Task: structure prediction
Amino acid sequence: MKCTNCGAEISGSAKFCTNCGKAFNGAQYEQRICPSCGRAIESDDSFCSYCRVSLTNSGYDNTAVIYNRGEGKNKTNKTAPVYHKNEGKDTVGDEKVKTVIAVVGAAVIIIIVLTAGLVLSAGEGTAENRIGLGGAEQEEDIQETDSSLSSEDTDINTEDGFEEVIERIREEYGDIVYNITNGAYEEIEISSGIKAYYSENDLKAVIVSAGADNSDYIKTYYYSGGELICAYYEGDAAQRFYFSDGVLLRQRYFPDTSDVQNYVDYDTNTSSWEGVVLSESQALKEDWQNALLNLNSRNLAEESEQNGSSAQAEESPAAVPDSSTDTSSNSGSSPSVLEIEDEMAELMYNYCSNLCRAINTNNYSLAGKYIVSGSSLETSQKSLVSRLYSNGTTEELVSCNVTNVVSAGTNAYYVYVTETERINYVDKGTKTNTYNWKYTAVYTGGQWKLSNIEQA
Result:
């Protein structure tokens, strides 16, 4: 009989044409297919004769694929080969091998380029360019470098530069808070309710308790290198002020201190706060310096008394107080000359620095706590504060030196003082003036206060 497909002579009992493979009566046969190129191959071949892919360890599932040789030529229902990633080494054909090689080669080139770039940048010397190459030691250097940078290193006129400076300030006062909490600083009480924290004579912070300066706010001032970097006023609402090089950069207002995520930033029109906060921080810094001087003086005096030396007392121009005078809180004991001098120096410095603050803020009570109520000094200084503030004049204490202390009777002294103030006039610029005054100090209500002033 002849094949109906190709016309070749075949056996009458044949199920397939031996020439073209035509199937008769729905017969099936198994044919091995190359998993790479899809062509028919011999069942016992180790490599495909068309594409050379290995058929023995190819990583493909190259089991027999069934062809249903029905009507029509090359009409098949072929099962796709399955790739197993964990099998074999020769897993793909030439084209796939080339693709893999190209990808791996590109990755190697990228790694080489990045490594070379990091090595080159490491030589530029900046902390930022050394990130990732030096480990923990260099990361510590970066933190120290960042905390010491000033706005001069950044273009503060750009948004990114401005925010970078703000972030540095936040990091630096954050470190100060951490060190205070962990007792890393020395501390000294400037006056009742006001404490200063410092390290090796470098002021770090001053905390003013609510009511200590007749304000309802708790006020904290943070310093770096002797300059104010941040101030925080906290009450029912709160204000945070960020400073750089003596300029207020940002005022952050918290309407509700219980919700710290709710705040408003003011980066312009902050000059009204700038002078007030700077003046207060400067006055507190001077109070701290004076407190340190007094502490050192007391320590020296104690050492002198222990050594039996009276040289300082003999050289002092101050009169020895009358033995009947009780000016100390310890009843029955008379203060020494050095103690009187220290008390007068502290009184005068507190009075002078707070008078400047009172003028700058129109808050007489700042200075009033050092003045006898109803005295002539109270009348004159109330008028001074109101007049200078209304004129826009501000003052800054440069120095306050007690030159002499003379007894003025029971519980009273004449205190001779040389004061130097820097005065800022609205229309005349800035002038520095020095004055010589004679004050009357009296002991009343358990503390020293001033009752009168006249030119020396």
